């Protein structure tokens, strides 16, 4: 297979031949750091769910292997040589003999390096497209292995449903969640995941806390909120220490009417607000956009 490349949009086969997958934003509703493993990765326990906001990955199986970038976020990735879509392709190619690979077009809508796993979601979408077009079962072990080799958040994005995520990101247990209105706010300040973990100052092999597992399901929003109140995002203090301006993002969300919970996702800098329904979320988003038109603000649903 020729080496896949990243390139500006080009003409390719007609739309009828194209396939597509959504690549939804991953939200860490809670995120406990339990310690640091001997291999350097941190041991996590995180309640994860997926938002209505997404990138979109189109695929032309007959096209030349590679990736074209489109959409409002394309420019932020244009000089990125190691796109996670291409990394996932390489990892699956290394595991599946004779894997046929075509051309991807990424419609980039989610902010980059923002704690909502956009790149991981894109990588998972690429794996799903390759599985569909190569006759691999979605639960083929090689899919999971390629996902984990691509990044810690890629397995959960491949899974794509609300779950408890543990370990480095490889242990996933389904959790039933009721629906919330959701507002995502990103101040367009990229935050490097590695720097936030490093700020915790844990040495390999160090344990720092234990947490009780969440229930396997929540019947009501009140139950979810009660659970989350005692389970913050442990990466929020180090992210705020690195980027004190994140305080304004949390404060703006906390000031919106009818907000039930405000928290950072992943390693930041995206914060989210939970609301009872999407109308309350839409109202809140409007207020934030009016105050900070320079921020990325998205009103959607989760659960
Ligand atoms: C913070 C989260 O977004 C929570 O879902 C993820 O744990 C991060 O997942 P990710 O961005 O896919 O992370 P990777 O690309 O695998 O790793 C990026 C950096 O974060 C560190 N990292 C990541 C995951 C983890 N459990 N422990 C870590 O210490 C890695 O050492 C690496 O330096
Ligand atoms: N398709 C992609 N979309 C976004 N970022 C990508 C992509 N490919 C590679 N990257 C690079 O991956 C890194 C992480 O990007 P991403 O947007 O997934 O971060 P994140 O939202 O903080 O993820 P996480 O929540 O998993 O930590 C950035 O350095 C970015 O340049």
TrEMBL record:
Signal peptide as annotated in the record: none
Annotated metabolic or biological route of this protein: Isoprenoid biosynthesis; isopentenyl diphosphate biosynthesis via DXP pathway; isopentenyl diphosphate from 1-deoxy-D-xylulose 5-phosphate: step 3/6
Domain GHMP kinase C-terminal: 233-285
Molecular function, one GO term: ATP binding
Binding site for ATP: 111-121
GO terms (BP aspect): isopentenyl diphosphate biosynthetic process, methylerythritol 4-phosphate pathway; terpenoid biosynthetic process
Its EC number(s): 2.7.1.148
SUPFAM superfamilies registered for this protein in UniProt: GHMP Kinase, C-terminal domain, Ribosomal protein S5 domain 2-like
Gene3D superfamilies hit by this protein: 3.30.230.10, GHMP kinase, C-terminal domain
Enzyme class, first EC level, given as a word: transferase
Protein name as annotated: 4-diphosphocytidyl-2-C-methyl-D-erythritol kinase
Organism: Ancylobacter defluvii
Originating gene: ispE
């Amino acid at each position: 297979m020729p080496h896949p490349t990243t390139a500006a949009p080009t003409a390719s086969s007609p739309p009828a031949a194209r396939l597509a997958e959504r690549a939804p934003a991953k939200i860490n509703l809670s995120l406990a750091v339990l310690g640091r493993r001997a291999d350097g990765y941190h041991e996590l326990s995180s309640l994860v769910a997926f938002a209505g906001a997404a990138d979109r990955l189109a695929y032309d199986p007959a096209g030349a292997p590679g990736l074209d970038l489109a959409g409002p976020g394309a420019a932020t990735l244009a000089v990125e040589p190691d796109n996670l879509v291409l990394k996932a392709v390489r990892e699956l190619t290394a595991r599946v003999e004779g894997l046929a690979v075509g051309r991807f077009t990424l419609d980039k809508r989610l902010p980059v390096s923002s704690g909502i796993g956009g790149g991981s979601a894109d990588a998972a979408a690429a794996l799903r497209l390759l599985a569909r077009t190569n006759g691999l079962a979605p639960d083929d072990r090689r899919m999971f292995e390629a996902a984990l080799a691509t990044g810690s958040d890629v397995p959960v994005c491949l899974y794509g449903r609300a779950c408890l995520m543990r370990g480095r990101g490889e242990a996933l247990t389904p959790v039933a969640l009721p629906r919330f209105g959701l507002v995502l706010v990103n101040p367009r300040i990229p935050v490097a995941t590695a720097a936030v973990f490093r700020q915790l100052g844990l040495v390999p092999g160090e344990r720092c806390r234990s947490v009780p597992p969440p229930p396997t399901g929540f019947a009501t929003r009140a139950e979810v909120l009660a659970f989350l109140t005692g389970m913050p995002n442990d990466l929020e203090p180090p992210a705020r220490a690195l980027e004190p301006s994140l305080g304004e993002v949390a404060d703006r969300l906390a000031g919106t009417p009818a907000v039930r919970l405000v928290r950072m996702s992943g390693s930041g800098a995206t914060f989210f607000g939970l609301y009872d329904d999407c109308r309350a979320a839409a109202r809140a988003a409007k207020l934030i956009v009016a105050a900070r038109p320079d921020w990325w603000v998205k009103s959607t649903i989760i659960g």
